[in-house]
UniProtKB/TrEMBL annotation:
It comes from Pelagicoccus albus. PANTHER family: 4-DEOXY-L-THREO-5-HEXOSULOSE-URONATE KETOL-ISOMERASE. The gene is kduI. GO terms for biological process: D-galacturonate catabolic process; D-glucuronate catabolic process; pectin catabolic process. This is 4-deoxy-L-threo-5-hexosulose-uronate ketol-isomerase. Catalyzes the isomerization of 5-dehydro-4-deoxy-D-glucuronate to 3-deoxy-D-glycero-2,5-hexodiulosonate. It catalyses: 5-dehydro-4-deoxy-D-glucuronate = 3-deoxy-D-glycero-2,5-hexodiulosonate. Keywords: Isomerase, Metal-binding, Zinc.
Amino acid sequence: MSVHRTTSPSEASMMDTQQLRETYMITDLIAPAELRYRVTDLDRAIVGFACPDNNQLELQADASMRASYFCERRELGILNIGESGIVTVDGKEYQLSNRECLYIGRGAEEVIFKEDQGQKPQFYLVSYPAHTSYPTTKASHADANRVDLGSGKTANERTIFQYIHEGGIKSCQLVMGYTELAEGSVWNTMPAHTHDRRSEVYLYFDVPEGNMITHLMGEPEETRHLLVHDRQAVLSPPWSIHSGCGTSNYCFVWAMGGENQTFDDMDGIDVLDLM
Ligand SMILES: O=C[C@H](O)[C@@H](O)CC(=O)C(=O)O
Ligand SMILES: [Zn+2]
């Protein structure tokens, strides 16, 4: 049975650079002392950043969500890619250092972001609808499951750190973690893949100054590219590959939502079959 598309691959293949960027990139989420997010129709992902300064930032439901509070029907994954900060969930404080993760389950009513002793956190947020409530759980860097992939020879040596996944923090549909490329390696997710059961969001970060990523998207036989800078996000529909090559090594947060959470059930694509 073929899959009914809401965001159509044939449309993507007709788009010019500006249209592709407007449809598949989110570039304006980070602002000092602000909490910003974007509501998308891609498995209803919400993608955002909370960057508290001297102020407190409270997560609130956008009017379009028709919810009395943000997590009324949703779960939320947070990865801090800045300095140390504090997230308070219904009165309970969680301190998150750089690259620590917090999962907030459906039903948490009050979520507040704060700085920690003058430091500047950057809380990256990804949320999906949730059918039940799993416990709010923090994972430190050491709690993440490490998967080493690729090699220096093919310039794709990298480590995947899985936080919210089948063997880690439990969730309804969110799967989340980040990937770090080794020095001298520039390719992520090559050989590329799709997974028709899930869509994905990439957030490139710690891209050294003056460098950028050529992100590849589109159906495997109809690829397009997006030039992506530090701390910009890319939306990847289920039919699209999501892979990139940088002018240096870098990191990216990946987050997925959809029907299942089996990380390894992707459909791999032979490098020579890409067009
Ligand atoms: O479906 C899995 C996601 O695309 C990423 O986790 C892949 C990735 O981080 C990598 O290969 O570097
Ligand atoms: Zn993927």
